[in-house]
Amino acid sequence: MRTDTTVRDVMHREFLGVSESDPLRDAAALLVDEETNCLVVLRGGESVGRLGCRDALGALLDTGGDEGGEGGEGDGDLTVGSVMGPPLPTVAPDDSLAAVEERLVAEGSDRIVVVEDGEAVGVVTGGDVLAAGAPRSGDGVHDPLSDGEATGEPRRGDTAMMGSDGGVDPAVEASSTDASGSPTQGVCESCGALVPDLVSANGQAVCPECREV
């Protein structure tokens, strides 16, 4: 097992992203078209937020698909900035993959943004860490991703797409099992988060939070 692998060795330099001023409807369409569950929100080159598919869907459902008008704000008036969540956790290009795994588990996130000189330069997912054989520091692991530049409509990142889906590759999955063969740690098959304890529900290995939904 290699222990000298760094973030720079495995990060996706091409990824999907949107800006705060992008129409939410367009960003939601990008999530669907690219089959990813999260976009990095950029202000210039700085990562300032995240847009998850659940947040986007929830906001659009709240408007009832209304175009807006006299009655108030419709989905045509919503922007990414009005519903985005807090920024994804960050690491530096020269950080170890073990450090990435620790952050993913601690934050309950499925991806992490690589920042150099104050700008987002890539993304690493839990699946990337597992595929690279990073030494386990704690528990769990898995995958997905996104990013781009800032202006008009949602677009492919400065360099385009990450992997086949900006890093979100459903085929990249891994987990640990207990003596009975049941998954105990790894990436949730529902939300994609890297968690220390997976449980079985409806034939899937999911985190406790998704099991309760």
TrEMBL record:
> For bias kind Polar residues, which ranges apply?
174-186
Task: Locate the region Disordered.
Answer: 132-186
Domain (CBS) spans 11-67, 84-140
**Which Gene3D superfamilies does the UniProt record give?**
CBS-domain
Q: Name the positions where Zn(2+) binds.
A: C188, C191, C207, C210
UniProt binding sites for Fe cation? C188, C191, C207, C210
Q: Which Pfam families match?
A: CBS
Enumerate the CDD domains for this protein. CBS_pair_SF (cd02205)
| Keyword flag Plastid | no
Q: Which PROSITE patterns match?
A: ACP_MB (PS51901), CBS (PS51371)
Q: Which residue range or ranges hold the ACP-type MB domain?
A: 183-213
Alphabetized UniProt keyword annotations: CBS domain, Iron, Metal-binding, Zinc
Q: Which GO terms describe its molecular function?
A: metal ion binding
List the InterPro entries hit by this protein, alphabetically: ACP_MB (IPR044065), CBS_dom (IPR000644), CBS_dom_sf (IPR046342), Diverse_CBS-Domain (IPR051257)
Q: What is this protein called?
A: XRE family transcriptional regulator
